Amino acid sequence: MAELKFQEDQFQPLTPEEQTEQSTRYADQLIRPEVVSVPTSPAHRLAVLSRLEKYLIASIIIGAIALGLFTINLRTTISSVENAISTVQSEITTNQNQINDLRQEKNELTKTDRIKKIAEEKGLTNKEDNLRNVK
């Protein structure tokens, strides 16, 4: 059925071109969805980061840097402790060698033959009555 157009107080039928144009406008208003803008490049997407995303990225980067610095500090501390341990171990070895040398010297100085020889040089005599065997 032909639609009518109101013109100068008269109704006139619409031409087929006007009918097509009017139906297209009507169809566009009913069917056409909203236009959604899609970013075309990653650079555009990066420019539209939210504050939360920026804070998260910044905190991850700061955390990685802090973890690296902590690791370096920890390795330095471990190295200094290992150095201190090796110093203490060398001191212990030196002290043990001194202890062994002093024990050996004590054993040499307390030999009975040496004590008798020194006593005879000083003019002391051995009294058999005063000697006792200690077990």
UniProtKB/TrEMBL annotation:
Cellular localization per UniProt: Cell membrane
Ranges where the record places region Disordered: 1-25
Principal subcellular localization: membrane
TM helices/strands, residue ranges: 55-74
Membrane-protein topology: Single-pass type II membrane protein
A single GO BP: FtsZ-dependent cytokinesis
GO cellular component, one term: plasma membrane
Any coiled-coil regions, as ranges: 85-122
Keywords of this entry: Cell cycle, Cell division, Cell membrane, Coiled coil, Membrane, Transmembrane, Transmembrane helix
Job of this protein: Essential cell division protein.
Family: Belongs to the FtsL family.
Protein name: Cell division protein FtsL
Annotated source species: Enterococcus sulfureus ATCC 49903
